[in-house]
Amino acid sequence: MTSATLSPPLADLIRRLDAAVAENDDEVRCRTVKRVLTDVVSQSADLLEAPFLEPRPERYARRLLHLDPSRRYSVLAMVWNVGQGTPLHDHSGIWCVECVYQGRIRVTSYSVRGGDPENGVVQFSRETEVLAGPAEAGALIPPFEYHVLANAGDQPAVTIHVYGGEMTSCHIYEPVEAGWRRRYRALEYTP
Hints:
By secondary structure, this protein is an alpha+beta fold. It has helices spanning 8-20, 26-43, and strands at residues 61-67, 74-80, 88-89, 96-102, 105-116, 121-132, 137-140, 146-151, 157-163, 169-176, 179-186.
């Protein structure tokens, strides 16, 4: 999707994000992106058009809204049907700001506490669990990027994610006897 096909509220968001990502420090950049997202989401009920709000029955939808031509950032809408969520995963070393657009999302954060890189098994400590509603946002800055997202309500939920580039893959972590086994996962966009 290019800026020429964006709705006016989404075009305004992109204009504001272009300025926000110009910061050189990830912490400052994420704080600024978070402020932009929460401001725009709290003031624009018509930010996303109907096709971007449709859930998928088999798994959460991941829809590209904008990819910066210089690849400094990307903006995605994710739609979570009732009961849908992610496995424990990382962000491949890419910063991210996630903001709830509709519904409620549960975010459970983890930190690495050890492991055996030779066999791909990691130990995690559960850190925090947050229930977030519309216009509430959080940031992930590597190495603090391990988490699980899940719909926490009885209606579909929608989140908007701004990544520090295009996230085309990540690692998911599956529970095993000795901890969590790391697996590569290619990420695709949902039509």
